[in-house]
Design goal:
With 72 residues, the chain is mostly helical. It has 2 helices and no strands.
Length: 72
């Protein structure tokens, strides 16, 4: 096994960073929607714990679909 050269490591690090930033930008509406759902349920009288659990369940399902998980 050979040691990667520093230039190649920098290139890979740069590509990974750019990919993570792009993913963050693309997933922001999903997180915003989950936050909005939670806030709306609390305004309607749901307990903060119940609202968080429902929003989390929705968020986990949305993330699974976004990441190519179970197709529905």
């Amino acid at each position: 096994m050979t040691t990667p050269n520093p230039a190649e490591l920098d290139k890979r690090r740069h590509e990974l960073t750019n990919g993570l930033l792009a993913m963050r930008e693309q997933l922001a509406p999903v997180f915003d929607t989950a936050d909005g759902m939670r806030a709306d349920m609390e305004k309607r009288g749901w307990s903060p714990t119940a609202a968080e659990q429902v929003a989390l369940a929705w968020l986990l399902g949305a993330m699974n679909i976004a990441m190519g998980g179970v197709k529905r």
